[in-house]
Amino acid sequence: MATVYESALGSSRMLSSVSSLSSSRHQSSQIAKAYRQAAQLFLTRRLPEALSTIEPIITPPPSQEDANASYNEDLSAFAPVASASRGTRVKVWSFYLTFLNSVVELGAEEGKHAFGSSSWKALVSKCRDGSVWEDVVRDGYAGVEGDVDAEVVVNLATLLLTHSPSQRLNQQRLETYLSASANPTFDVSSHMQSSSYLQRRPSQQNNGTNTPRDLNTRLKILELYTLHVLPRNEEWDYAREFISMSEVLDDERKEAFLLALHSLKEEKEETESREAKLRQQQQEQLEQRRKESEARRLEQSRAEDERRKREEENRRQPRGSDEVFRKGQHRQVPSASSRAAARRPAEKAASPPPGLYRRFASAMGSMQALVLNTAHSMTANPMALFRTLLFLLAFALAFGRRDLRERVKRILRDGWDKVRRTVGMGVKVSYI
To answer: Is residue 431 predicted with pLDDT exceeding 50?
Structure first.
């Protein structure tokens, strides 16, 4: 009887195992089908449809989502992708992270148009605050940080490195993963209950370097951590120390990593120096423009003050001239009767002979010109004045002698007689 019972129990376990295997294969087929459909929609830029297709396999079932998650044999409390094969898990999560990167790169306007404002902001927030890393660990790897596939870790770190403004969370997550994968721990009370968990656990041991592919992935994680994340957090000394103490890197790779780190630091310092010089030049240019603007403003202010002064003077000056002109005109313009009375005496007054007036005016003009010319000559050429004085003195001395005076008079008298005789002869000829 016991043998029959044991045989029945064995048959029941066999049927249960076959049923579980069949269910697992069916679920894996559904996951692969959903992944292919989502990838096709993504390639044709139908992003909302791609999201709705991939979400069911990366999200826990609604009935289990808020429950206290615990391991069981088929991991039904977690997202369906958690029970998929390693290759399928890597493909699904890598696709989802690539999808999120594309959503962020859409920009606010196109992203809100495609997904709606609240949905687009929620998707972008996963990348910028790093919460997507927690979602992947919790829903896809049963909350075990060290179990996350290395390729998925690379994609997670790259996504946060690209879109997260702070790399502190990225550094913390990478350090937790590196520590957990290098020193795996086992919780016998829970982990031993999951046969599917134990089937995928060995691939994470031995520092994640069981195969050349695992080693390359591990090196990629170290590169992201030491040459990108730590420098972004200004952890240059710690990055150098980590590289030197790493057990995964051989001497050649350590030297290459340290050289790359040194080059990155020099490049950053040169960039900061150029930016500082550029800021200084911009500041100097702004200061120069400010001074020029201030000088122009002062010049315009002075010109405006001068213009107002001129306008004020012009407004005052015409009023005074008009008043003087009006007053003078009022005094000088006589009445009609006074103009007539004044005109009659003027008509009776005898005008001077024109010939006498002209001679008198010409004589006065000649005297004035002589005085002006003499004054000018005296000022411009004192020697000429001296020679004139000498001539006058010689002339006076000459006329002081009587014989010379008589001789001059005789010459003048003879000359005048000749002139009179010549005039008389001309008159006689004209009569003839």
So the answer is: no
Query: Quick check: helix, strand or coil at residue 184?
Result: coil
Assigned domain for 168 exists:
yes
Alpha-carbon span 394 to 7, nearest angstrom: 179
Burial of 89 by CB count in 10 Å (0-12 exposed, 13-18 middle, 19+ buried)?
A: buried
Amino acid at 426: G
d(CA 23, CA 32): 14
**Tell me: the pLDDT tens digits for 48-77?**
999 999 999 999 987 644 444 444 445 567
What separation in angstroms does the CA of 42 have from each of 39, 47, 159, 222, 371?
Answer: 5, 6, 18, 30, 115
Domain count for the chain? 1
Closest-CA residue to 226 (of 171, 303, 285): 171
- Asked if the structure places residue 83 within a domain, the reply is yes
202: phi then psi, degrees, rounded to nearest 5:
-60, -25
Amino acid identity, position 308: R
pLDDT above 70 as % of the chain: 62
Residue 266 lies in a domain: no
For residues 226 and 244, the answer to whether their CB atoms sit within 8 Å is: no
Q: How many residues would you count in the chain?
A: 432
Maximum Cα interatomic distance, the chain, rounded to a whole number of Å: 204
Say which amino acid occupies 133: W
Q: What is the DSSP string of 112-142?
A: HHHH-HHHHHHHHHHHHS-HHHHHIIIIIST
- Of the candidates 62, 59, 63, 68, the one whose C-alpha atom is nearest the C-alpha of residue 31 is 59
Is 50 contained in some domain? yes
Answer for the pair 173, 133: CB distance below 8 angstroms, yes or no: yes
Specify the 3-state DSSP secondary structure of 243.
helix
| pLDDT tens digits along 299-311 | 999 898 888 888 8
Domain region containing 113: 21-204
Least confident of 210-219, 238-247, 379-388: 379-388
Helices and strands per DSSP (H, E), number in the chain = 19, 0
Q: Which residue has the tokens 């080693």?
A: 215
First and final C-alpha spacing in the chain: 204
